[in-house]
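Cross-check.
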Amino acid sequence: MTCFAVSLGLPKSFFLSQHSHSAPGNTLKLIKYPCMQERPDERIPRLSEHTDWGSFTFVFSKTPGLEVRDPSDRWFHVPVVEGSVVVNIGDALSLWTGKALKSTLHRITWENLPVDKDRYSIAYFVNPNFGEFGPVVFWL
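Predicted model, tokenized:
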């Protein structure tokens, strides 16, 4: 949070002070994408494309399947790197910065992970405090 604030020309504690783990709080979630006997219709993803609503999300996984979309509307497979964490920007942080930081559009696909294998991940959703936002900053 400090790095984001400094890179945007804000005081170091600008975002950090708004994330004191009060309501709604942060959420740690173990997620299982179950295997299937056979792959469903090509149009059905394991998890549809979406953004997360909070400030950002830390994603820990040892199995492939996560893809992110870049600003040119191209999808990219996120490689699994031992001991690493994926950080997705959420809608709250994107809107808070006037979209200077973009929400990460992501999905879980059937590619890169056989249909007969489960996919597990741990997501830590970081949320700003309700009702305690400092001045909203907008860049055009």
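The first strand starts at residue 27 and ends at 33. The chain has one domain: 26-126. Passed to J.P. for a second look.
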